[in-house]
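Researcher: Structure for this, please.
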Amino acid sequence: MGYRRLFIVRKDLHLTAGKMSAQLSHCAEAAWLRYFDSSEITGTIKGDDGQEQYTFEHTVLPADVVDQYVNDAIVKTVCQAKNRTQLLKAGKIAEELGLTEDIDYGFIYNMCLTELQPEEEDGTTMTAFWTAPLPDETAHAISKKFHLYADDTMTLPERMEEDTEYARGWNDCLKMIREKNSKLLK
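Model: Predicted structure, token format:
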């Protein structure tokens, strides 16, 4: 069975590339951190380097998920939500599929220390939605309601046109070099 991680980011926040990267990093970590609930710390041990390390009581990971994770076989999909309301819709769909919040899926809240303005009563802003590794069909049941994340700065036809102009420029440059070289060789 194939597994997929789904991340959905709000477009209306107009996140910079750095801020969006940070929010996606939080999404990626969220599912793994849930396995290490601090309430399950059973003790500490000293590592080979003398540093203190925690031991956990009930950290159980499905073998097929771990195998696919280690072999980089878990697909990651990044979609976009128009706004907070649409992002919440992802949570509603996940709940209807029988998934559990903060275990199978969750939301990322930014502390608003740099670019964003607080929207929540606690001074944070909801920026993204994440899932744990889910069977492909389950992840698709959520993602089919959303578009893949797209950069608004340039449409695909614009990007193709720019690439074509860039290639033409190089071809013109190469043509001039060939002409100069041919004159030099005569």
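Researcher: Any notable elements?
Model: Helices lie at 17-33, 63-70, 84-96, 136-143, 156-185. The radius of gyration is 24 Å.
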